[in-house]
Amino acid sequence: MQENQIKALIKLISKEDGEANAGLKRELAQVIKDHPATIKNILDEGYSAPAFLYNMVEESAWDALRKGFISFSNKINPDLQEGLYLVSRFLNPTLPGVFIERRVEDLARMLRPAMLNCADYYEVAASMSILFFRTAGFSAAQNALRAQDVAFYSFLREKRGSALCIASLYQLLAQRYGIDANIIDLAGRVLVQFVPPTDKPFYVDPVDQGKIISEEDCRQFIAERGIEWEDDFILPASSRYVIRRFLSNLVFVYNKQRDERRLKFLRSYLSILEA
């Protein structure tokens, strides 16, 4: 279908209502699915598109995103970065596939000189924290989370994000250097666990400028909240679990906004990962 035909269909939808409007929108939805490049050209050329067109383009992208989450969920050991990209695409459906990879690789290169002088995992963790919070200027969004604070691509661009975003950045860079580092969920508190080859694990708090804490500190945190300690508190979280947490955070944000249009899709993604 040519651009002028699509614009004529959009104009007709704007004039019709009731069942006729619904039928025409179904036709447009199929056009959006079959001719995404043409739709993008229409939106990019400055065409005064009605709000319903933008909504339908978003919803078409979100519907297609289900396949990505199904593929991710079906893997025995899904890749965290892949999951972060899928969550990011919910906010930015046209996000280039290489965006996150390139930003993380840039940070890994910046870290390399410090890594050459690290004697142990403690120095590795400290070097990462210096890079993140001092050199690169990342900061934790602790209150009034926005959707942008949850999307990893936006976190990399704006350098402000949730504890889960910062913890994920620790893990991604650690993986690139063969460092055993994992995200843990300490009864709702997100930490990064470093596991030295010949020493006890220790933990990094992504909200507190990368402060290093011990297992004893973790136990005290739990005790102060009147919760009985369980060893599961310090077990590494799987990539599937981490991505579920990201999606749950987005659900929390859009629940407060009462945005049922977005919530419908987010809940469907969660159901895929929980199956």
Word description of this protein:
- With about 280 residues, the protein is an alpha+beta fold.
- The chain is about 65% helix and about 10% strand.
- The protein contains 13 helices and six strands.
- The protein has helices at about 5-15, 20-35, 35-45, 50-75, 80-90, 100-115, 120-135, 145-150, 150-160, 165-175, 215-225, 240-255, 260-275; strands spanning about 140, 160, 180-185, 190-195, 200-205, 210-215.
- It has a four-stranded antiparallel beta sheet with strand order 3-4-5-6. The chain has a two-stranded parallel sheet with strand order 1-2.
- The longest helix is centred in the first third of the chain and has 24 residues, at about 50-75.
- It is elongated.
- The model has no long low-confidence stretch (mean pLDDT about 95).
Order of helices and strands: HHHHHHHEHHEHEEEEHHH
Strand % is 5-15%
Please state the oligomeric state of the protein chains shown: single chain
Helix content: 55-70%
Give start-end ranges of low-pLDDT stretches: none
- Kindly state the number of beta strands: 6
Structural class: alpha+beta
Shape label:
elongated
Q: How are the strands of the largest sheet arranged?
A: 3-4-5-6
Mean pLDDT: 93
Task: Please give the radius of gyration in angstroms.
Answer: 22 Å
Largest sheet: 4 strands, antiparallel
How large is the count of helical segments?
13
- What distance lies between the first and last C-alpha atoms, to the nearest angstrom? 39 Å
Relevant terms:
13 helices, 4-stranded antiparallel β-sheet, 6 strands, two-stranded parallel sheet, alpha+beta, elongated, 275 residues
